[in-house]
Amino acid sequence: MAKKENEIVSYEAILKDIARKKKGVFSISRTLPAYLILLFMLFLSFFIYYNFEQKVKSDNTAAFEKAISSVMTRFEVGYNNHLQIATSIRGLYDNLVQVVRDYLLLYASVPTKTYKSILGIMSVQKVPRYRLTEFIYYVQGQGYYDYSIHPFVEKNVYYPVEFIVPEDVNKHLRGLDISSVERLKNWFQLAIERGEPTATNVFPFRGNDTLSLFLIFPVYDRSFAINSAKERREAFKSAVLMEIDVPTFFKQSLGAGVPSDTSIIFYCYQKDNDLQETRLFSSANISLLNSDFKPILSQIREFNFLDKKLYIFFATIPNFGGSFQKYLPLVALGVSILLSLVFFGLIISITTSRARAIDLAERMTRSQRRILESTKDIIAVLGFDGSWKTMNPASISVLGYEPVELIGKKIDILFANAKDLNDFYSSFNNQNSEFTRKVDYLMKTKSGEERWINWSFTFSPQDSLIYAIGRDITLEKMAEIEERIKAKQTILAEQISREASEFKSYFMTKFSHQLRNALTTISGYHQILAEKKYENDDEMRTYLDLAINETQELLSSSTDLFDVAGFGTGSKILGTVNVYNVMNEALVIFQKKNSDKKILLKFDEGSQSVTVASERDELRKAFETLYNALINGLQTLELQVQIAESRAEAIVEIQILASANELVSKMIVLHNENLNNLIEAVRYDVDDILLNLALFGSMIRMLNGQVKFDTLGEDGNFVSIILPKSQ
Predict the structure, then answer these.
(1) Could you point out which of 47, 61, 70, 320 has its C-alpha 20 to 30 Å from the C-alpha of 328?
(2) Distant-in-sequence, close-in-space partners of 521: CB < 8 Å, separation ≥ 6
(3) 697: phi > 0 → left, psi -120 to 50 → alpha, else beta; which?
(4) Among candidates 221, 217, 223, which has minimal Cα distance to 195?
(5) 281-312, pLDDT tens digit by residue?
(6) 376-472: same fold as 96-251?
(7) Which of 254, 275, 256, 255 is nearest to 267 (CA)?
(8) CATH homologous superfamily, domain 575-724
């Protein structure tokens, strides 16, 4: 017996022994548990397949919905902008007794130049036949000397276009009787009777090459009741119409596009009836929809222009989500079945012989090696000194390095900036227990290209090793960065818009004061001349009377202009403000928000008592913004402040010299080179420095001040502020 045991010592001997005992080894009693486990594993494999399939469908649906939402959101923003413009112009008719040509030009010219989709903003009047001659004479008096109503047909009421903006390309529509346009008059009457804004169907109003949609805003005489359709027809006096080029509107709203736009196909259409529809706009890749493929996902969304419904059909592109993702459930099923068979083989091996167990172990080792070599993620090990110990082949596709080129070298060569490198080494200093840290770093490939890598570092002090898994997330990171840039551009654009509104109100008020004073003086001189006695000088008297009348009319117009400007929104109520106190108040608030940073304010002698005409809270917020910009990248900042007043010029000049800061210096240079294009320059901003500088400048200008930034290199950064002196 002992001799027999000594014979079974080699792999070949084991195989021979298994072959000799094969019948007993594979008996039902021995292998039944393995087969039961195999059935369970196969069931589990199909369960995994089903879940993977549902997960892929769910991910595709989520990506599809996100792409749709991105498109719909931009359409909604475009629509809201157009509606706001139309509503604002409609509001003129509530605030003014009569809207003259100049007012319509003032409020409508900028929107029509800004939005190419707005073909025209027009004022349409209700003109009874008995007032027709008076109306034509009035419009001709506004500067339209060739104004006439067309097509002219004898009837009780006309609805002519009174004014239209832009004027140069719409001269042929001036005087057009809206009630004579077949595809427009019914919608026009409907808007009158309903008493609320109405949108028309899309139709070729200007010809077959243009698809137009009108937004109609009726205006009623307030002295009439408008409770019924009949009362509204009688009370109607005018309307504001906005003509929108629908294809241009959709193209303009989409803008330059986002990455998700390329993953879907869409087109917008109008239902003419139950059987016919008119296509209004299509995405650039609409030709894909005509090819022989069936989208895996499609959806129809409604898009409303007021009460007018348009429809947008969305569909996925071929290979939506990636061709690999399409087969991912099958791959998961295959891998699961493979693992089930492997596990089944493992059980069989355990219940049969040592040789089968050894063979299975070798095959599993090979499988794991293949997985390690085929994955697209970096799987590697580093020492605590940052040198690579192992590296899988994913480094070729992700970083451009062969594994052998990295092993033995430090990770330092891959970092794109020193900030991330310092963060990596400081993260595991003085750590005594194992922990995992996930972080995104900007890395350099062998060719010098920059890529964002999401790292999962497991630091093991016990092994003195760092286990690393890295995934390329460059596309996701760039999309995230682009979103942040757009958000900052939006903030700056809104601030500049508020600044423009403040400037308009200030300009109109100042202009009206000057004009009224000048005209009052002229009128006084004319009165003096008119009271002199001339013998047989009737003609001189006649001319003087005419001059007096004309001057009084101009004076009346300037007074009205003053009243309008005086009630403009956005005007600041300025008071006497101590600059020294406000700067210190802003510093206290800044320090509360940024306890890890410190700013030292040093004022020159005599600066403590200087006051300006300003708005205290707005000025304080402005200085908070300036502090945020100047201290960026530093822990401590010193500001030398000199405040001087000029009584002759009625101004106060504030000069601030900040400690040297290379990052801020670069942003000041960028700011000064792009004064007329700051919104686009924000794209190159670093840590919001340029954004805060631009916001500060705008906030000071809104307080009737001026700002100048300059960099003195190693001597620091200089800010000059001029504000009006308090009276």
Answers:
(1) 70
(2) none
(3) alpha
(4) 217
(5) 999 888 888 767 788 889 999 999 998 999 99
(6) yes
(7) 254
(8) Histidine kinase-like ATPase, C-terminal domain (3.30.565.10)
